Amino acid sequence: QLWLTEDGGGLVQPGGSLRLSCAAFGVTLDNLAITWFRQAPGKEREAVACIGAGDGVTEYADDVKGRFTIAKDNAKYRIYLQMNSLKSEDTAVYYCAADPFCGSAVDEIDYWGLGVQVTVSS
Question: HSE on the CB side for 102, CA within 13 Å?
C-alpha cells in the first residue's frame, strides 16, 4: 500500500524560499512519477511540477519555471520541491501525488498526500 506525506510548508515573505518534501511509503520510486499539485482557495487543483519515473525527466508549469525545482532521492524515498522567488499567488495547499506518468489528470491519480499549506505574505 502506497502512501505519501508532505512537510515543509509555512509562511514566507514575497521573494523568499521554501523547500517542500514528500515522503513515499510502501513502494519504490523507480516506477512512479511524482507530481506536485497546488490548490488555492476557490480554484481548481493544478499541476506545478513533475518528475518522471526512471530517468527522472522533469516538467514544470509555465508560471513556476525558473523559480521551482523538483528533485528526488530514491534512496530516501523522498521528493523535494524547492521554491524560490515566491509570490503571493503561490499561496495554496500543496500536494504530492504518485502515478505511473507525468501529465495525468487529477481524477486519474489514485495516490495523494494530505497536503501542506504554503502562505506567501508580508
Answer: 18
